[in-house]
Fold this sequence. Notes:
Elements: H1 13-26, H2 39-46, H3 50-62, E1 66-69, E2 73-76, H4 99-105, E3 117-118, H5 131-143, H6 158-172, E4 181-184, H7 186-198, E5 204-209, H8 213-221, E6 225-232, E7 235-236, E8 247-250, H9 264-277, E9 280-284, H10 300-303, E10 309-314, E11 326-329, H11 335-346, H12 351-362, H13 365-392, E12 396-398, E13 406-411, H14 418-426, E14 430-431, E15 433-434, E16 446-450, H15 456-474
The structure holds pyridoxal-5'-phosphate (PLP).
Amino acid sequence: MEFHVSLGGRGALAADVYRQLREAILDGRLRPGERLPATRALSERLEVSRNTVLDAYRRLTAEGFLTGRAGAGTFVSTESAAPEPRRRAPSGRALEPRPLWRALASEATLSAPPASHDFRVGIPDPSLFPRDDWRRLVARQLRKRDRSSVYPEPAGVLRLRAAIARAVGLSRGVQAGADDVLVTSGAQQAFDLVARVLIEPRAIVAVEEPGYPPAHAAFRAAGARVVPIRVDGEGIDVAALPPETRLVYVTPSHQFPLGTVMSLRRRQALLAFSSERNAAILEDDYDSEFRFDGRPLEPLQSLDQSGRVIYVGSFSKVLRPSLRLGFVIAPETLMPALWSAKRVSDSHGSVDAQAALAELIDDGMFARHVRRLQRTYRERRDILVEALTRELIDFLEILPSSAGLHVSVLFRRRRVDAKAIARAVRRNDVAVESLDGYFQRRPRAGLVLGYGLIPASKIREGVRRLAAAIRAHWS
Length: 475
Ligand SMILES: Cc1ncc(COP(=O)(O)O)c(C=O)c1O
């Protein structure tokens, strides 16, 4: 690595070089075992004589900071301590973010550390990722030398947009062509872009209660007033929406986190509200590829007659979250603004990953992969529901979940401290989340159990340990 040395001016150059190298070793920027530049190379770079650098190296070697290995070069001594890099303390008044961002930064994060029996939510099984196919497809992209890999349109690689339009048309009945699709860096960026182009400061965005906090944060960041609306067995309570709502954010295929499917009646009521009140609907279809029972209901996007539904999808659950691939399908009237917002935000996503995904979909590998995942996750869901029923049915209600990667449960007693139960079972190496963090107002006592990470063979034992913690808490 290039090491930056700033020379103060005339004279005492060797002392300057010595002092700065010593500081870098002490504060950890140069780590034990790291190789220093050759004296000749460093002296040329700094435009000083080689003796100046040699002097500094000799002094540091004599003090034990550096060691020389004949023929190999000069290294930071492995005995020198490597503390955390030091941050410079601000002088005068420190820089502060806008108050809005201070508030957002202090929102609780929901990520918990891993456990041997891991029911954390929303994380797909990394071992099921189609590694070999992906490696081959990306390698093929990297071998290409044509211009297609240079700054494409902000909406993303055309072939991928066409593949997405076809795929969601087939699997979900979503009506779209390539021009209606904008590829995003995960669903999260879609929320952010939609919020930027649609929401005036102080506008009301209605969201499900309980709901998905990262989406709410994107709306707040755009200056929205986020209003939580209770979800019942049919979905969001449309009658409770404030009349001046500008945007309604919903997860109709598989409510996050409760798992409810929004009924057809409720979908129609929501669409009627949206067209009467000129409110947009943001339909987040984040995990509907994993549908285990029954026929899926029509998405709001295809029921909509008035062009007010924005449909968002994600490849985070079917492939992996770290790829950051998602998309938004929006009414024609919003597309130019969304293109601009995407360009302002990050120009466009990673071209190689987008082109690789287009091939994965077009060649049928993606559909085969999804069918394989469906079998695996359905088995896990069945084992989990069966184990919860056997061990815990007296204590909790298991909410039906016909899709996705998680099951939620509600305690039959209202005054149960779900967070305390989650903490207690964590001590027995089981990770579950309480529902508390997904509510903005008074939470219902419950837990959410993901089965993306836990193999089928560990589910029953995980539930046994959970049952023990709940029984201990109950008495
Ligand atoms: C409700 C909901 N929407 C969207 C997503 C997907 O987010 P992303 O595509 O940004 O990874 C998740 C992932 O956990 C989710 O739970």
